[in-house]
Amino acid sequence: MGCHERARRAAGAGPAAGNRKRSGVVRVLASLVMLAGLSTTAFAGDGGTPGLERSRLVIDSDERRHVLNVEIAREPRERSRGLMGRETLPAEAGMLFVYPREQPPQGAFWMRNTLIPLAIAFLGGDGEIRAINHMPPCPGERAGDCPSYPAGVAFRAALEVNDGYFAARNIEVGDRVDLPPWP
Question: 31 is in which domain, residue-wise?
């Protein structure tokens, strides 16, 4: 062992110290991976769709601010699946449908294979609630079995929640949702 190697080891910087540093980094990385897995698992246990982006939205009404945990559907296949097949939706949860550009007033949602009653708020690009519709469940297998619900206004995003959520909190057209950044 050369004198530089002895000096490094004496100072705690030898191969053993390098291994301690590496094992500490590995432990931190393993912990982060485990926490990420627990977070995804906990959300999926709440009926969420694995793989969807999640966020907290704040809805500003005249009376107060309401926090809502949402899944974000940005891709066409995510938007078309929506909340199909869900038997429940937590009280403070919803799904935000985000579009790459403003959608026309004829843009509509349907409830095919949706088992729970929902309310939907159509949002402008600035987060303003432009319209709210109520949509009863439609367990029908065929597209023709279920009605569609047009927005009636141009919209950039739509927010689905349990039916009654907006009314119970006095959230109305003209209130605002703090939206996540657009892609």
Answer: 3-44
The C-alpha angle with vertex 87 and arms to 58 and 111, in degrees rounded to 5, equals 75
Geometric angle at alpha carbon 133, from 99 and 178, rounded to 5°: 50
Per-residue tokens: 54: 């999640």
Same domain, 55 and 145: yes
Nearest 10 degrees: Cα torsion 153, 155, 159, 160: 50
> What tens digit of pLDDT does each residue of 17-66 get?
454 444 443 333 333 333 333 333 234 345 566 777 888 999 998 879 99
User: Pairing relation of β-strands 108-110 and 118-123?
Assistant: unpaired
DSSP 20-72: HHHHHHHHHHHHHHHHHHHHHHHHHHTTPPTT-EEEEEEEE-SS-EEEEEEEE
Please provide the distance, in angstroms rounded to a whole number, between the alpha carbons at the two ends of the chain.
57
55 domain-assigned: yes
Confidence (pTM)? 0.71
Q: What are phi and psi of 92, to 5 degrees?
A: -105, 40
